[in-house]
Amino acid sequence: MQWLLIGLVVMGGAGLSVEAGLLGPLGEEVGGLWATLSIFGVGAALTFLLMLFFSPRQSPSFFSQPGWTLTGGILGPVYVVILTLTTPTIGIAMTMIGILAGQVSKSLMIDHFGWLGTQKRPISSQRVIALLFIIAALVLMAQG
Questions:
Q1: How confident is the model at residue 76 (pLDDT cuts 50, 70, 90)?
Q2: Secondary structure percentages of the chain, helix, strand, coil, to 5
Q3: Average pLDDT of the chain to the nearest whole number
Q4: pTM recorded for the entire structure
Q5: CA–CA dist 116, 33 (Å, integer)
Q6: What is the structure's pLDDT at 66?
Q7: CA-to-CA distance for 140 and 92, rounded, in angstroms?
Q8: What pLDDT was estimated at residue 56?
Q9: What is the DSSP string of 5-35?
Q10: CB contact set of 105 (below 8 Å; sequence gap of 6+)
């Protein structure tokens, strides 16, 4: 089961690379903020349709959730604007490895300390080595 989930997240990551490839040219044509709005507009419409047909009817109210849990919505547009601005200049691969380095380094801290209500997963030497390999990939790509 774990490998199936890992496969799904790898496919999701591959999709982000395609998204970056689409956003770069779109942002150069219409501007970064318009490109971001288009991505979120299409995504919101698709999510609405999925919710309409597949969302559980008895789920807790969206408005009864703690406010801090909704701040993730701020991060999405920031991420997309960053993709839109950086991809045309440094390329998709460099953009994605930079994103990955940031994701893994922050994820290790979140897991280690159990921030955001997650289960604590201590940082191990293997995880640190994996992060160092990602940083090495970032450095090597920047030089190539």
A1: confident
A2: 85, 0, 15
A3: 91
A4: 0.81
A5: 29
A6: 86
A7: 15
A8: 84
A9: HHHHHHHHHHHHHHHHHHHHHHHHHH-HHHH
A10: 131
- Distance CA(97)–CA(138), nearest Å, equals 6
Please name which of 90, 87, 102 lies closest in space to residue 39, comparing C-alpha atoms: 87
Nearest Cα residue to 134 out of 100, 95, 107? 100
Question: What pLDDT score does 33 carry?
Answer: 93
Backbone angles phi, psi at 65, to 5 degrees: -80, 150
For residues 36 and 84, the answer to whether their CB atoms sit within 8 Å is: yes
pLDDT > 70: what percent of the chain?
100
Q: Give Cβ neighbours of residue 79 (< 8 Å, ≥ 6 apart).
A: 99
Domain boundaries, the chain: 13-59+70-143
